[in-house]
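Quick sanity check, SDR family oxidoreductase:
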Amino acid sequence: MTNLFDLTGKTAVAVGGNGVLGSAMAKGLAEHGAKVAIVGRNLETAEKVVKEIVEAGGEAKAFQADVSSKDSLQHAATEIEQWAGGWDILLNAPGTNSATPFFDLDMDEYDKIMDINLKGIVMTCQIFAKRMIEQDRKGSIINISSVSSTTPLSRVFTYSVSKAGLNSVTQFLAREFAANGIRVNAIIPGFFPAEQNRKILDKERIESIMRHTPMNRFGEAEELQGATVWLASEKASSFVTGAMIRVDGGFGAMTI
């Protein structure tokens, strides 16, 4: 069974791998043998994640890129290709949020969230998947969605819209890339306290979340590692594509 999840010899690109959730998932890939490129807008935080991976016995390198800029992503892809030769796994984990009420929302804020959460993922897939196909590399693309993608949550209108779009992108690309041996799936995390959502987690909000989460707690970032490694492994999830994998403590199973 251990061999099913062995990623030795594989290279993973973790876009947003310097974030709270992205870094935990990137570390999980490294722990199972993958060589990991940590890509983030903030190079300093990306290098911190690399240091932690290397100290744990893994192999990683930090790269700077702004997912809202295609030129920036192209540059990062070229640098990673020079470092690793290519990649087999693409983890898309960048994200931003806002608690702005719908009628107070201006289009600059709307565009910023959509640029990072949706447009940025589309561009990342265009650039990194194209190079996988050109090198005839089979592999796995893992997008990070949200519970708000299927049941829109209050206070996070644009975030919910962006993640719903991401689900559609995931399923479209799963169909598009299947002939090339590239699987495309999404993980739907439940509530994992991170910098981008702490501003909307007041006492009332937390109580409401707990009432709708059967396991009655928040998730820990490391609890996303299992699903990530499973989806990354060509042996363990070889017939899985276009899937939305919930890691949400039962949030999606609740009604009333």
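Posting the structure with no commentary besides this: The chain has a mean pLDDT of 94.
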